[in-house]
Amino acid sequence: MGVQIFLVSSRREHLRSATTDNLVDVGYHGWTRLILRGPDDELNEVQQYKANVRKQLISNGYRIWGIVGDQYSSFEGLPSVRRSFKLPNPFYYVS
């Protein structure tokens, strides 16, 4: 259907292998790309980091249809998206 899935996490790049293994172990398959925080991103707040990733994806020609996340920081900042899906997280909340 022409939809590509990008997983954007505030986890650090050095955790890529463990993150990928965990995603596969719990049944996540078929994503286009896993985007993690590099050293240049670590000084940015999570909200700014994720907004910057959205800007980069748009500048690369992608249209962002929606965002699914468990923290409001995933949705905040510009550019905004058409749809946001906030999932509950009983374990932690980032204010």
The N- to C-terminal Cα distance equals: 36 Å
Nearest-integer average pLDDT: 89
Structural class call reads alpha/beta
Strand residues, percent:
15-25%
Task: Please summarize the sheet with the most strands.
Answer: 2 strands, parallel
Rg (C-alpha, Å): 13 Å
Chain-wise SSE layout:
Blueprint: E1 6-12, H1 16-25, E2 33-37, H2 46-59, E3 66-69, E4 83-86
Parallel strand pairs: 1-2, 3-4
Protein name: PLANT ACID PHOSPHATASE
Organism: Salix koriyanagi
Keywords: Signal
Could you please describe the fold and organization of this structure?
This protein has about 100 residues and is an alpha/beta fold. It has helices spanning about 15-25, 45-60, and strands at about 5-10, 35, 65-70, 85. Helix 1 (about 15-25) links the parallel strand 1 (about 5-10) and strand 2. It is globular. The termini are far apart. About 5% of the residues are buried. The model has no long low-confidence stretch (mean pLDDT about 90).
Looking at this protein, list some descriptive labels.
alpha/beta, 2 helices, 95 residues, two-stranded parallel ribbon
In short:
With 95 residues, the chain is an alpha/beta fold.
